[in-house]
Sequence to fold (86 residues):
Amino acid sequence: MLVPYESLTQLSSETFNNLIKEYLISQVEDGSFSGEGEHSMERAIEQCKAALKQGILVVEYSEEDESIGIRRKEDIVIQENQQDDW
Fold:
């Protein structure tokens, strides 16, 4: 289930930023983001918030394993299409 951006803005800023930081850390692990320095992280958080607002990134809640995470919208569409093919 996708969480609407408007619902994300209802979260405390600390919770919202922690969700984004978790996503960014996963991007460091796969090489998509170089998180060196505090200013770099702050800038990346702002860029991520903008991408969420624009719908480039989305927040997905999985009822199956009760997890929440940020994904690229195109990755979710691809996964849904692959499941339809099965």
Remarks:
- The chain is about 60% helix and 15% strand.
- The first strand starts at residue 2 and ends at 3.
- The CA atoms of residues 20 and 49 lie 8 Å apart.
